[in-house]
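go over this record:
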Amino acid sequence: DGIDAWLLIAPTKGINVWCAAGGGHFSADTVISIIRTSGIEKLIDHRVIILPQLSAAGINSWSLKERTGWNPRFGPVDIKYLGKYLQEAGTKCEEGYRRVQFPLKDRFVMGTNLGFNSLLFLLLPFLIVSVWVDGFWWKSIPLVFLLAVLNSVLVFFLPGKPGVRKGFSLGIIIAAFFAVLTQIAGSTEPLQAVGWTGWILLLSTYIGYDMPSWSPLWRADVKELILGKRSTRINIIPERCIACGLCTTVCPANVFTPDLVTKKSAVSRPEACQACGACILNCPNEAITSNFQAGICSCPTCAVINTVKTSNKKVHELKEMKRLTNLKSCCESEGCGCNDAGQAHRQ
């Protein structure tokens, strides 16, 4: 778009901006490091830096300004809107660039990724079941991709709330379609038809549970995904709000609305809250309260990853404890030269 600006690239280990910020891989320290190592301060005569809007979940803009003297501004969600954002900055038009969207193209891509991710957990069970059910694995693989893509593409049209309910709804539709086809073709035995119908329903429900964790619009909370019950709560303390409007700026889901008279923010769409924590991190007066811990995801993928990380951490702690115990036992025994060696080194 012919934008006259310098582009600073932040390393996020291949993770997208939102997840990197929420996971601690894109923080104020990251930005400070880039500013100081790039030499950008010698190339320009101003101190304004535009940050990706979705990085607000990991960057405290007030702290960044205090530590660097730079004036951080959160730009649009997508860099393709950067030119328009710069032209229309300060107007209401820029608000449209700060809201996360989930268009058909993105839903299709997410659906295929969801299919590959699901197979990581299901392929081995498929192969095991195939010992008793002939052809189970190669018939189930395309079924996984079909249900994953449809769960994602049709998410706005399926009945129920995102999660188990939408997955179950799609399962009923696909299972009914399969039952009709088998009746017309007459090539499947009744018992097999019942088994595959139930399997379609079960598999679609599982994939429906995992789908929101791949989307930018729904929080992967267990109670909400399974029971459809909203457990996330967020509130603003009016007495503490200073009407800076930063919570409205950094929120990617349009949860807050400023009062027309006082300009103070209010929670207008609590059901849209992603629990990303961007508003809490950037509120200068601690005026926002919540009942969630930002960055915690309960999808099957993260549940496995977090379990492995926790197990590895415990194993490492046990090994370290054992090493220190053995070292202590060694040093307390006769003839140990650790103290003598240490004293000689100091001399």
